[in-house]
User: Fold this.
Amino acid sequence: MNWLFLSLVGASALAVTGIIDKFILGRYVRDPLAYLAALVIMQQLLIVSIPAYLGWGYIFPQSVYALAAGGCQVVLWAAYLLALQVEETSRVAAMVYVFPVLVFLGAFIFLGETLAAKDYAGGTLLICSALLISYRPAQGSGPAILSPALKYMAVFWIFSAIYALAAKYLLAFMNEWHLILWSSLGSLLAVLPLFRYEPVRREFAAYFRNGPFLLSVLLADEIFDFLGRGAFIFAYAVGSVALVSSVAALQPFVTLVYVILLGLFVPGILQEEMDRKTMAQKTVAILLIVVGVYLVS
Assistant:
């Protein structure tokens, strides 16, 4: 499978994950860190078979670096969940993909990847799309504002770029499955200190006392997340890290399609602004993303 197909699979899977996250955050979650801890714990259920079939694949010091990369994932996930708490799913999904611009710079400096002028033009369009989707026009006499999610997404961009660059580097020393294994274990080590706090322990336990429905939704969320992250790791192995990260920017388009379909068939499940002006703004932002992706792919 080529890197483009894998990137599209990853973007589609993570779009589903974002919608599930928003649904759970709006109905069951008071503390996003407790929710993140629950997802990381469930993630371990999906990787337990890797060492059984492929061994641990421990390589020093790269396996230690992969553990650290897993810690970076926890930071970017926490920032993403905080952004979802204060903003619509479709807007957050569109803001996600500024991080390829940081990947461009890092890939040039650390990995020696060179890109054409059109690739950098595409990156500029991705930045413009994120600013557009985060902009909220003035309501009445009030001032126009940028989305409150923007400050969380800035953290997300930085740590997503670090993770993407680290993954590309590490894949020169280990296969894709072992990178998934060691980064997932790194995520586990990063969330374990959260259980020192009683509110996190209490809310974490409540998720598992809420019955089979919530557990099923949590498991589905983690399966789609695992599929999305895994697809990107396999894409990094065969393609340019900068181009893979940029094509992943199609996720906002997929998310908007899912949100519209949910609004038509399951109204009220997500709180999204669907008026004509807002939809036009989101559509223009997504068109900028599509053009940006075309330029860099």
Observations:
- The chain has one domain: 3-137+144-296.
- The longest helix spans residues 212-238.
